[in-house]
Amino acid sequence: MISLPTRRRFLQDSGLGFGSLALATMLHEESRGAGVADPLAAKAPHFAAKVKSVIWLFMTGGPSQVDTWDYKPELQKRDGQDLSGADPKTGFFTTSGKCLKSPFEWRQHGESGTWVPDLFPHLSRHVDKMTFLHSMYLRQNNHAPASIELMCGTNRPGLPSMGSWMTYGLGAENQNLPSFVVLHDTRPRGDDQIWSPGFLPKSYQALTLDARRKEAIDNLARDAKHNDAQQRSQLDLIRQLNQEHAAARPTQNDLAARINSYELAYRMQMAAPDALDLAKEADTTHKMYGLNQPECATFARQCLIARRLVERGVRFVQIFAGKGVGGDGSVNDVPWDCHSDVQTNHRSCGLHTDQPAAALLSDLASRGLLESTLVIWGGEFGRTSDSQGAKGRDHNPNGFTIWMAGAGVKGGFHYGATDEFGYKAVDKKVHVNDLHATLLHLFGLEHTKLTHRFNGRDFRLTDVGGEVITEILA
């Protein structure tokens, strides 16, 4: 005989059922917020920040400091003479030990009187916005390990890059777009490791956009067979399965990143195409950046996209300069790499990057965004002051220049120095750990407190070094 429930039992079971439904709803909403599915929730800095966003113009290949921003009259005078203290094995190949003067015409610009070569007719108008770090140095003398050291603080594989550390420390300001975006043409040597999240959860990895594919984003568009409600239902089911999987495996942090990646892709379907749609920009803006000029159109498009991204709250945008021209006219996949002919190579790279970079500074300033955005220009190392062959320069990690412009730093300011030939940093030397400590400080982060425990040890971007360069702060 089947026993029918009593009225009291029916009401008790129903009440518990309604409670379970309410609990499920609350847990679902919590998972959309700061719970397991949202490791990118905005986080408070350690102290008041001066910068909201960074656009890093990475001059892949290593521009020559003595042919770009570090004018050396003594080098000009002693062309062809012995370079005292030169080490022919400083770079990757072998150099002559003979001084090689800069082949470009130099003039002073701005109220700061900054010396600029004729490579940069557009950027020369902005020198009073820039802080120049003339005494940069690092330890690696080839492209991939030097690029990794510059972005990760050391060249050891598997460590997080600065963009990932920044996202880990501060989260995302716009929940509909990634916090860290990389724009590249030919992938630089060192490629993924330069912008890797390393041992950090994969939620903090970069979105990489390839200029050769017009910055298309893979797998972003919804299947035409599904409407929004169907896709939302599918994502909710995937979330439920992933959460059940995560509950049974609490130590697997990448599950949270997987859940977040689905949700972020869903939200990006509207936000990302809008951010990348340059047709919404005026023709005057296209011309200002140089989108109508073949020699710089790719870099121009990337710079304009970078502005549109920071305008929408993206925190860290990195652009890797594309192809250059070698001394023999061949295409070079590390553009500023001038082993055979610095004049031909750097002239090509100047045409590729000068106008777009200058337009970016002008555009940010006109919109009030330069007050919250820091633009950085520089490569993974410098070049030798003595020649490689007759007209080229080899790699030189011992002294090079990086400039910054915009939020938080002084304008028209020069910090540190190389020797009279531009060969080595000698005054107020700046290692990449010091650069990172300073940039984190501008974002309101104390670099010694931004740590992540991995394999029983607390790691940080600045490793066991790094000092904030207080003299350059505005």
Describe this structure as you would to a colleague.
This protein is an alpha/beta fold. β5 (180-184), α5 (191-194) and β6 (207-210) form a beta-alpha-beta unit. The protein has helices spanning 7-32, 73-77, 143-152, 162-170, 191-194, 228-248, 254-276, 283-289, 297-311, 342-366, 432-442, and strands at residues 53-58, 106-109, 114-117, 130-137, 180-184, 207-210, 316-320, 324-325, 331-332, 373-378, 382-383, 395-396, 400-406, 413-415, 417-418, 425-427, 430-431, 451-454, 457-460. The strands form 6 sheets. Strands 1, 4, 5, 6, 7, 10, 13, 14 and 17 form a 9-stranded mixed β-sheet that branches. Strands 2-3 form a two-stranded antiparallel ribbon. The chain has a two-stranded antiparallel ribbon with strand order 8-9. The protein is built from 11 helices and 19 strands. α6 runs antiparallel to α7 (254-276) and α9 packs parallel to α10 (342-366). The protein has one domain: Alkaline Phosphatase, subunit A. The radius of gyration is 26 Å and the shape is globular.
